[in-house]
Specification:
The complex is a heterodimer of chains A (217) and B (226). Chain A is 82% helix and 0% strand. Chain A has eight helices and no strands. In chain B, 39% of the residues are buried. The chains are: A mainly alpha (217), B mainly alpha (226). Chains A and B meet through α2, α3, α7 and α8 of A and α4, α7, α8 and α9 of B.
């Protein structure tokens, strides 16, 4: 292990890690928004929107992110839609994550017993009020473990961004291996960088889960 | 539309299917190995010895925390460097996906056994079955019923994840697609749209039936247990 090499090149990793976190973060937040919309449209069985949601979910869940990204980045420009690498990364991650989030959130909604909703109705709450005060808070708690698993899954999926020329961690590692054949050092920094990103989030999620389980049950 | 024609020109479509088969073959070999090794891991995760369980748990967490692509890089670039062994991209991929699949499969097997209620073990004991008999006739059939949909879902995940092997130089469907696009750069400048669209749908038609099957089995089981 060449420590001088590491101290010389770690700023590249820091920059790449920031990019991974920013694009991953935006993608994950948008995934949650798309997921919530999809879950609501399926929960309330909104006619046309629901069909679109089901088709979208199946398409997104049954194809790899790298293929989705290739289509966005190399395919769409031929149809006149040119997207930057960053935009491709965010759109691709949202396309993939939206369906996973939607499934998790929907099963959270479905975990609320019918009796609860009927009681709320008999108390004279409107549909929106029922969602706001009865269904949503408890569905969110129920969906939390699955949603946090999705967040970690999506963070890990960002590793394929290098395929669409985003200078993320994998890209930097591959670059350094190619240029200096400093394989051990480059891979070491790569692993450390991912650990720094994923471990705290993973720990945070399990702490949150434990607290919710104690409070919710 | 000339891009669409390119796909069906000559043997292009067959070549794409051949490329898809490369990744699916890697997935199938890894799934097979993972099922065997994962069953042992799952069994090891249920022994009383705390040290064994801790080691298994650590293995699972270490494998899970890193993106699969990082593991591919570590094996493909790192092993060559450290041990001087030259592994092909395909071999590296099978190694990585087996290590990963074993971890996930082990966790599923553990979950499958844990979901069989304790009274099932106790009732078989009360009926005078030996431990082996209890496992063969009572526990396994129930555990496997719970396990199968999850195994199918893991398989689709494996098939999707093996698409990453193009990034360690395996000539699979994305690479073949790129070759076709490059070869027809002048005759069909918009080939990329159609070729990558076709690959997208190819993956969909492989994974969708598997997902449907898993959902159908799950639904049936829910009805049976309700």
């Amino acid at each position: 292990m060449d420590l001088a090499f590491i101290s010389q090149h770690y700023p590249l990793y820091v920059k790449a890690a920031v990019l991974t976190v920013v694009i991953g973060g935006i993608g994950i937040v948008l995934s949650a928004v798309v997921g919530l919309i999809c879950a609501l449209s399926r929960y309330y069985k909104i006619p046309v929107l629901r069909t679109i949601t089901v088709i979208y979910t199946e398409l997104s869940r049954n194809t790899p992110l790298i293929v989705q990204l290739f289509f966005l980045y190399f395919g769409l420009p031929k149809a006149g839609i040119v997207l930057s690498s960053e935009a491709c990364g965010i759109i691709g991650l949202t396309f993939l994550g939206g369906s996973y989030m939607s499934e998790s959130i929907l099963s959270g909604f479905q975990s609320i017993k019918k009796g609860q909703i009927e009681s709320a109705e008999s108390l004279g709450l409107s549909k929106a009020q029922i969602m706001r005060y009865v269904v949503f808070p408890r569905a969110a708690a129920a969906a939390m473990p699955a949603v946090s698993a999705n967040i970690i899954f999506l963070l890990k999926e960002t590793s394929v961004f290098s395929a669409v020329a985003l200078a993320d961690l994998m890209y930097v590692a591959k670059d350094l291996i190619g240029m200096y054949s400093s394989t051990t050092e480059s891979l070491f920094m790569l692993v450390v960088a991912y650990l720094i990103i994923i471990l705290p989030i993973s720990l945070l999620c399990s702490v949150l889960e434990r607290r919710l389980r104690r409070g919710g049950a | 539309m000339e891009g669409l024609k390119i796909i069906f020109e000559g043997s292009n479509f067959l070549r794409l299917l051949g490329g898809l088969w490369v990744t699916i073959r890697i997935a199938l070999i890894s799934i097979g190995l993972s099922v065997i090794l994962g069953s042992f891991l799952g069994a090891a995760m249920r022994v009383r010895n705390k040290a064994v369980r801790a080691v298994c748990r650590a293995y699972l967490e270490i494998v899970r925390i890193m993106p699969q692509l990082v593991w591919l890089f570590i094996v493909f670039f790192g092993i060559v460097r450290t041990f001087g062994i030259n592994l092909s991209g395909e071999t590296s991929a099978v190694i990585v996906f087996t290590i990963w699949g074993t971890a996930e499969m082990g966790d599923l097997v553990r979950g499958g056994f844990e979901n069989v209620p304790v009274h099932q073990y106790e009732s078989s004991q009360a009926l005078g079955l030996t431990k082996l008999q209890a496992y063969i006739y009572v526990i396994f059939p129930q555990a496997i019923r719970l396990l199968i949909p999850n195994m199918i879902n893991l398989s689709t995940r494996m098939i999707k994840t093996t698409a990453l092997v193009s990034l360690i130089g395996v000539t699979e469907v994305l690479k073949v697609g790129k070759q076709i696009i490059d070869a027809n750069r002048f005759e069909a400048p918009n080939a990329a749209l159609w070729v990558y669209g076709t690959i997208f749908l190819m993956y969909f038609f492989v994974c969708f039936p598997l997902s449907m099957l898993a959902t159908a089995i799950e639904k049936k089981q829910k009805k049976l247990s309700a």
